[in-house]
Amino acid sequence: MKKVYFKTFGCRTNQFDTQVMLSNLHQFTISNEESQSDIVVINSCTVTNGADSSVRQYISSLKRKNPNAKIILAGCGAHAKGETLWKDGSVFGVMGHSEKSNINKLLQNEEPFYEIGDLNHIDTTVVENFIGKSRAFIKIQEGCNFDCSYCIIPQVRGRARSHAEDTILEQIKILASNGYGEFVLTGTNVGSYGRDIGSSLAALLKKISSIRGVRRIRIGSLEPIQIDDGFKELLNEPWMAKHLHIALQHTSDEMLSLMNRRNKFNEDIKLLNFLAEHGYALGTDYIVGHPGESEAIWKEAMQRVWSLPLTHIHAFTYSRRDNTASAFIKQDISGDIAKIRHNELTSCIKAKNREFREINYKNLEVLLESGQNNIYKGFDQYYNTLEVFSQEDLSGNWILAESVEVQDEKNRLQF
Ligand code: SF4
Questions:
Q1: Nearest to 82 by CA among 119, 108, 110
Q2: Pocket residue to mutate for ligand 1, from 144, 226, 261, most atoms within 8 A of Cβ
Q3: C-beta 62 within 6 A of ligand 1
Q4: How far is residue 368's CA from residue 354's CA, in Å, rounded to a whole number?
Q5: Helix intervals (H) in 118-194
Q6: Which end of the chain, N or C, is less surrounded by CB atoms within 10 Å?
């Protein structure tokens, strides 16, 4: 049987999509070694120009390492750059998002192929097992209607559409009976779930929580305006992970408006304080160095960051993406300044995270991932990392840590 290696770039949604492709592959062997594979499927990301270059660099290095491998481009990059890369012979095949369930047939092609499909499809594949993961990722929706000015995603993943509730619940039932207890709900814009099918994220969460074996539910990323009353009613449920990722992207209203965002700082701070009062650790996405972020704007934005009860951050340095509204604004922030701001922001949240862990170091419920050299790592309910030393194999186990040692970037426990 021919050997296939999967290389995944980008976000959790892409990780999920790779699992969908794996679930649909029947007449091939999955390989862990790209240099000894007959076919390499690249599940690509195109979120910035930099992401495009990473994919191109990977293709070049692959051609040196394994010149005979057939390279197949999948993922968002297939929609943005697939045609060019296919026409210039960089890749053997291109398959769009909607073609994942046809992968078994597509990979049998002896002739180069370009199957871009459409951007309206919804996956119906039920992913039964996640290789090497103790948490299961469930994609509940596709696409986004927000049109933030820096983002290409709506162009390469289409408009927001929800997966059928029955498919999601069936998938979770199977995974729970296969031993998974923690579920991470993902999608391009998770909080928009249900709007197109007369339902809501809160209604879905309630149904998922009643499935036998479901112990904890995490939610990928929410927009502030999507936390509605129905969702707020669930905050004290024991199965809700006590960590929410609320995508603010900035704390200056001027920047938020330039970025065509729907949130405003005054409402964001009220919301985050409300969630923190309910015991939640709070993460966010934040973009630094977007054009227009003057020194005065940055200073005020940072003061505002300090005032927020944040514990985690995904800080991104703005990177221009062709064909987006922001790409037409003249860049007035140098790379060096953006780097300084990025460091300032991450140091602030690092300090806040430590402060949070100094208070919340007891009764941590942790699902451990597979370990190495007697060290096991996992996330607690607040999405903080716990490192456990144990002679016993604890992979995939839930533990309750009554008290842990708080270290600089993580918590630690001798088991
Ligand atoms: S919410 Fe904004 S940043 Fe997120 S995918 Fe949609 S357009 Fe992009």
A1: 119
A2: 144
A3: no
A4: 21
A5: 153-157, 165-177
A6: N
Q: Any bridge partners for residue 98, and if so which?
A: none
Is the CB of 144 within 6 Å of ligand 1?
Answer: yes
Report domain extents, the chain: 3-115, 135-358, 362-414
Angle CA 190–247–296, to nearest 5: 160
pLDDT in tens, 328-365: 999 999 999 999 999 999 999 999 999 999 999 999 99
Helix axes 201-209, 165-177, angle to 10 degrees: 30
pLDDT for residue 171 is more than 80: yes
Q: Is residue 160 within 8 Å of 122, Cβ to Cβ?
A: no
Alpha carbons 412 and 406: distance in angstroms, whole number: 6
The architecture in CATH of the region 135-358 reads: Alpha-Beta Horseshoe (3.80)
Cβ contacts of residue 276 below 8 Å, gap of 6+?
Answer: 282, 309
- For ligand 1, whether the C-beta of 170 sits within 6 Å is no
